[in-house]
Write a structure and sequence with these properties.
Blueprint: E1 21-22, E2 25-26, E3 28-29, H1 40-52, H2 63-83, E4 91-94, H3 97-112, E5 118-122, H4 131-140, E6 143-147, H5 157-163, E7 168-174, H6 186-195, E8 199-203, H7 215-218, E9 222-226, E10 237-241, H8 243-248, E11 259-262, E12 267-269, H9 283-299, H10 301-320, E13 325-327, E14 337-342, H11 347-356, E15 359-360, E16 362-364, H12 369-374, E17 380-384, H13 391-408
Parallel strand pairs: 3-15, 5-6, 5-7, 7-8, 8-9
Antiparallel strand pairs: 1-2, 4-10, 9-10, 11-12, 13-14, 14-17, 16-17
Helix pairs in contact: 1-9, 2-9, 3-4, 10-13
Length: 409
């Protein structure tokens, strides 16, 4: 067993990646919306699996396989607890949010969506919540509708309601914009979608590191997220689905472990959740994800949100005080993501200069090109904050931007 993470006022010592310099400068990591850093307790959990119980799961009768299976299923229970799902078998392990959404697009799409049926998304979606529905549209002749956002970066509620109709089969929407930090009123959107008879998929990849998502209270039909956004390993993610829907849906991938019996004439599929987990899964990734979620619960969302809210407030004020810096979007409710531009400096050039100062930000379209198109931009600079950031990081970012302005003056 690994030792539990110590809960400290300053969690930075628990993230070994921060214990280094970049180009001889203190590392300021402001790219957590792309991927979060990993605490020692998660690294240790993954390492211990490979060191002590490196075996395949479910099919083995030897001790290492049984221990690995127990650790894997304990991770599933950790996810169930975190989401407050009714049953552990409603938790499907995937390779990430993208895979989870594609699973729904293929399986639920095959079952429930046909020619003329409609899928409703929003203008602020990540490409992973756009392209799978375009592919489904091409396969079955469905209609993809888009609820616009306003210039503040909030969803247009009237347009969303107007887009719902008796042909809407699925609403797929982000809980938190990866490009703008917008927090969507998902509980209200879910109720409106259900009133129209539509099922709802939530993309919680950006939201779950910063806010709790209770799937029973929200009454969402599906929820997808990635481990690497919330201090877990890469290559692991989750699809939550209501049991009634998952039971009815056909498998997405075929192979080992998703079957009960196979002949050349017929295959009998396994029960949930294994029906959707073909082949050897990312066992270490699931174990690391389970430990990451425990780490979050040990910290507590109230403390995480208080820390992030204070950082966001100070960072917004600091950036607005710099001449030539322009914030993109002013959503009514925002969490730790800020997109911005600096006069006369392309975001990619800014990102390169900041990197030389030891500051990691994201520069580009953030896999949200429709958001960029809304603002008539090709790219923005994006700073995203997490629990290991502090005031020194904000000061470092401000100094780095001023340094870039001096270079381009």
């Amino acid at each position: 067993m690994t030792a539990p993470c110590a809960i400290l006022p300053d969690v930075r010592p628990q993230f070994p990646c921060l214990d280094q310099t970049v180009h001889g400068k203190r590392l300021t990591y402001l790219d957590s919306a792309a991927t979060a850093l990993k605490p020692t307790c998660v690294i240790d959990a993954v390492s211990e699996h490979y060191a002590r119980e490196s075996a395949n799961i479910h099919r083995g009768v030897h001790a290492l396989s049984e221990q690995a299976t127990a650790s894997f299923e304990n991770a599933r229970e950790s996810v169930r607890t975190h989401l407050n799902a009714a049953h552990a078998h409603e938790i499907i392990f995937t390779s990430g949010t993208t895979a989870s959404i594609n699973l729904v697009a293929h399986s639920f799409g095959q079952l429930e969506i046909g020619p003329g049926d409609e899928i409703l998304i929003s203008e602020m979606e990540h490409h992973s919540n756009i392209v799978p529905w375009q592919l489904l549209r091409e396969r079955c002749g469905a209609v993809l509708r888009v609820a616009p956002m306003n210039d503040s970066g909030d969803i247009d509620r009237d347009a969303f309601r107007a887009a719902l109709n008796d042909r809407t089969r699925l609403v797929a929407i982000t809980a938190l914009s990866n490009a703008l930090g917008t927090v969507n009123p998902v509980a209200e959107l879910i109720k409106e979608a259900h009133t129209a008879g539509a099922s709802v998929l939530l993309d919680a990849a950006q939201a779950l590191p910063l806010q709790p998502m209770d799937v029973q209270a929200l009454d969402c039909d599906f929820l997808a997220f990635s481990g690497h956004k919330l201090f877990g390993p890469t290559g692991i993610g989750v699809l939550y689905g209501k049991q009634t829907l998952l039971d009815a849906m056909p498998p997405f991938l075929g192979g080992g472990d998703m079957i009960v019996s196979v002949t050349f004439d017929q295959t009998t599929y396994n029960d949930l959740p294994y029906k959707f987990e073909a082949g050897t899964p990312h066992i270490a990734g699931a174990i690391g994800l389970g430990r990451a979620l425990t780490f979050i619960r040990e910290l507590g969302y109230p403390a995480i949100q208080a820390h992030e809210t204070a950082l966001l407030h100070d960072a917004l004020a600091a950036l607005q005080a710099i001449d030539g810096v322009h914030l993109i979007g002013t959503p009514a409710q925002r969490r730790g993501i800020i997109s911005f531009l600096v006069d006369q400096i392309h975001p990619h050039d800014l990102g390169t200069i900041l990197d030389q100062e030891g500051i990691a930000i994201r520069a580009g379209h953030h896999c949200a090109q429709p958001v960029m198109a809304h603002y008539k931009l090709a790219a923005t600079a994006r700073a995203s904050f997490s629990i290991y950031n502090n005031q020194e990081d904000i000061d470092h970012l401000v100094a780095g931007i001023r340094r870039a302005q001096e270079i381009f003056k």
